[in-house]
Amino acid sequence: MNDDKVFNTLQKRYQRLIARHESGAPDEALLEETEAFIEDARRAGASVSALNQRSQLRAWMRFLAAILYEETDKQPDVTLQPLARGRLTTGDKEKRVERPAIPAWGWGLIGAAGLAIILAMLFTLRFLASIDQETPTPVPSASPTAAVEATAAPSLVYPHTVQEGETLFSIAAQYGADPLRIASRNNVAESVALEAGQKLSVPLPNPYLARVQLSTEQAVEASGFVFCAGTETVYATFTFDDLASGTSWSWKVVRDEETVAEETMGPWRERSEPVAIPILSEADGILAGQYTLIVMVDGAEALSSSFKVLSTPPHVTDLRLSTVPDGADRETLEPGARVLYATYTYAGRCAGQAISRTITFEGETAYTDVKPWTGQSEGEGQVAYYRSDDLPLRRGEYVARIRIGAEASQETSATIAGPMPPSFGDLTVAMGVEPDGTPILGREDEQPFGSTTKIVYAIFKYAGLTEGLPWRVVWTRNGEEIEEEARLWDPEAVATKDTHWVALYLESGDPLGGGTYTVSLSIEDEPQTETTFIIYYPPAEGEEVSP
């Protein structure tokens, strides 16, 4: 398969993948296909020699890699494989042809013609210099790739006016660009909705620079674009592809439209490792603000990357505990709540800093997690804690602790007091039940309820019930009630101290009929919990079964 066939095949696959991603949330199969495409595009680097096609392959991989990272938190390798030896060609080798010697009078004619050409060129240059008018910039064509091919030294930045319903990802797909680079160049967050008519600068794929990563250490692993207050040094790690040795390149850092640092790096030398350069350094901490790193190759802008140095250190404020999502902080909470919300505000958070969130009950850890860096230096967060059995929260003291990094943290506490209200927890439907209340379930490779099912158990946790309290169980099949039983709570008749169950069966001992069943529980006519299950019957011969 030649270069064009390989590229065209990948282009069609890319277009199909983009259409599927835009149609809705990606499923596991689509994510696997996306990962496979990136790997195939990487390998195609060994055979695709056209510079603009190699640039397009990188753009496709980076765009899809951003989607994968957003969905899976995995960052795939998007480094294009180098060309196989002998693949970069400029055309067929010329055949050696013997030509007769040129006579002396012929050389005289050639010399005269050459002099005439030189005089004509000098006249043309003087004419052009006399024109006191700036040459108009060509209008880019509808295809950004074609515009790059047609221009000897492209600006590699394309102006775009946002249309109704467009997002950073859909715009990036139009140009084969990286949505993260668009967000960085225009200083917008990837999650913020764009407005129709908004002007954006879209950095186009280029044949020179694979990527630049910013960090506070000479290590790519510590990369980011938001740096903590007091940061002393910011490094830029440059990775070039297909950049010929001897090519001139430079960089500069701009803040408030003023250049604060710049360096001409001179001719490029081929290196096996990326180049890490300190672009800003201040012993007392870099001045807070918004910066832009601009990289120039052969005098043309090849890439720009925005970053921010924060003015305040990381901190957590306004931490509050409540039994409703937007409630105020309270020291005492009413009993009966099934969810505890810890809401907080944070600021000064920089690249790589995770937020640790912990809720304890009576000194023991009840819930803990770590929220990784998502690109937001400030905002609001919330933790929702509830019991796994869906019973009301137990009485006692709860403490919420939110921490950013090693030092910035805040905590608050609240107590649930008073008697536990009568409650039933989640229902588990099973084929049987152990004496201690453990459900007996079917094997994972078969349906638990088949045509021979004669009895079904509904197992549940309970709390706060007192002797003589009325409660009710109702069974339905295909939407019609088939059994209802009103009972009085009897502590002597329950199965265990915190678990009880009810059962559905026919007095005749026959199998239960096929269909969709529900079982629901209530206390004093107040609904508590409900679940649904299916008893499957094999279809009769020739009978069609709807999915």
Describe the structure in brief.
This protein is of the alpha+beta class and 547 residues long. The chain has helices spanning 3-22, 28-44, 51-72, 104-129, 144-150, 168-175, 179-186; strands at 157-161, 199-203, 209-215, 226-227, 233-240, 248-255, 258-267, 275-281, 289-297, 300-309, 315-322, 332-333, 339-347, 355-361, 364-371, 379-386, 396-404, 408-416, 423-430, 432-433, 439-440, 455-463, 470-477, 480-488, 499-505, 515-523, 526-535.
* Name of the CATH first level of the largest domain: Mainly Beta
Question: Average pLDDT value?
Answer: 78
Q: What count of helical segments does DSSP give?
A: 7
Strand residue content: 35-45%
Whole-number radius of gyration? 35 Å
Question: Which quaternary structure do these chains form?
Answer: single chain
Poorly predicted regions are 85-102, 104-110, 118-155, 543-547
* Number of domain units: 4
Task: Provide the CATH superfamily of the largest domain.
Answer: Immunoglobulins
User: Architecture of the largest domain, according to CATH?
Assistant: Sandwich
Secondary structure: number of strands: 27
Shape: elongated
Class inferred from helices and paired strands? alpha+beta
Sheet with the most strands: spatial strand order: 4-10-9-6-7
Largest sheet: 5 strands, mixed
What percent of residues adopt helix (DSSP H or I)?
10-25%
Could you tell me how far the N terminus lies from the C terminus, measured between alpha carbons in angstroms?
A: 43 Å
How is the CATH topology of the largest domain named?
A: Immunoglobulin-like
